[in-house]
């Protein structure tokens, strides 16, 4: 059934619902696409829909980029669906033999049947097993991913759980890659906690603000929480910071361009992650690569793979704001402990260097075509 003779010989198509929104799936897709293209693969990134606010991830892409629909993600008419099938069919017929990486359950159901036989389907799932179990995703993954060449998850823990508990016979794990490996590390002397991500409900930055407000009572008075990102929750979070008495200590930074994020990590001392659910949140790996320890809710195998508790950072039970405050407060009060955890975090983050993750992708391609 092999379409190509080896991992390096194949074309690679990445298909997303929307390839250009500011988000984790999109960022990982463009990073891996660029890396594989630089290794000599013919690479295509396909967005089924146009992004409402397109974000440019790669300045000089070496891969082809395609958008099928001019409309943002939403329900399609029968006519629009037929047009999608024709457009995808024309595009995919022009691609050489290789692999089609379908980046979500929705993409699997829309694209798999349209793939020519020379493009072997690989399904990605960017969430955790815990998140899938609480949504329609689990039913879709169970129904469709077992029929693909491989089902790729973000951590060994998630791959094992899908294999054992959902009887998927074809699981594989590949973590999200860092965009680059920094040659400098943070001094960890700035009194600054970082929160990085979209200001949306699922990220629960209100809990991070509450925990910071409690932690600050027992720390030096000039500590600040810098929230980096934009979203619909911004005004509500401002009000929440005021209600917690830290309106002057929570700084809303807005969106920071990717090339400027290095400065933010270098000026941080702790990263806080307070999400309701995550797959493998790249901000934890990015902070670690700069030697910045993290405090996070223990919401997934991906989080646990990035932050081994007590070694590279601190984990607390999901939604435990008091526990998050205690963990934050302990690191805010101890520069030596920040340095100990930060050094171990950087060493641990080596596994997420771009070249190592690209090696894993090519190992997967070779395994599929063996």
UniProtKB/TrEMBL annotation:
The keyword Transferase applies. Keywords: Glycosyltransferase, Transferase. It holds the Pfam family Glyco_transf_4. Residues 193-347 form the Glycosyl transferase family domain. Residues 23-146 form the Glycosyltransferase subfamily 4-like N-terminal domain. The keyword Ribonucleoprotein does not apply. This is Glycosyltransferase.
């Amino acid at each position: 059934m092999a379409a190509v003779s080896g991992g390096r010989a194949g074309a690679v198509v990445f298909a997303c619902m929307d390839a250009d929104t500011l988000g984790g799936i999109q960022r990982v897709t463009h990073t891996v696409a660029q890396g594989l293209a630089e290794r000599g693969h013919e690479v295509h990134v396909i967005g089924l829909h146009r992004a409402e606010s397109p974000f440019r991830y790669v300045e000089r892409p070496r891969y082809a980029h395609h958008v099928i629909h001019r409309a943002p993600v939403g329900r399609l008419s029968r006519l629009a669906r037929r047009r999608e099938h024709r457009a995808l069919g024309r595009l995919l017929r022009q691609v050489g033999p290789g692999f089609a990486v379908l980046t979500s359950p929705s993409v699997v159901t829309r694209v798999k049947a349209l793939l020519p036989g020379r493009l072997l389907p690989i399904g990605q799932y960017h969430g955790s097993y815990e998140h899938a179990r609480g949504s329609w995703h689990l039913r879709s993954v169970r129904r469709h991913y077992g029929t693909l060449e491989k089902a790729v998850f973000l951590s060994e823990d998630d791959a094992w759980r899908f294999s054992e508990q959902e009887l998927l016979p074809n699981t594989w794990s590949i973590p999200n890659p860092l965009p680059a490996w920094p040659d400098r590390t943070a001094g960890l002397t700035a009194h600054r906690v970082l929160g990085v991500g979209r200001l949306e409900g699922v990220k629960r930055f209100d809990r991070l603000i509450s925990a910071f407000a409690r932690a600050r009572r027992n720390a030096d008075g000039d500590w600040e929480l810098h929230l980096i990102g934009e979203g619909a929750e911004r005004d509500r979070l401002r009000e929440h910071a005021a209600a917690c008495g830290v309106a002057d200590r929570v700084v809303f930074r807005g969106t920071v361009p990717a090339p400027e994020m290095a400065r933010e990590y270098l000026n941080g001392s702790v990263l806080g992650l307070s999400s309701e659910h995550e797959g493998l949140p790249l901000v934890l790996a990015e902070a670690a690569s700069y030697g910045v320890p993290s405090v996070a809710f223990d919401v997934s195998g991906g989080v646990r793979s990035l932050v081994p508790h007590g070694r590279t950072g601190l984990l607390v039970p999901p939604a435990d704001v008091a526990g998050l405050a205690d963990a934050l407060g302990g690191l805010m009060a101890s520069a030596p402990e920040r340095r100990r955890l930060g050094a171990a975090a950087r060493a641990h983050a080596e596994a997420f260097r771009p070249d190592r993750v690209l090696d894993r992708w090519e190992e997967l391609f070779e395994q599929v075509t063996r």
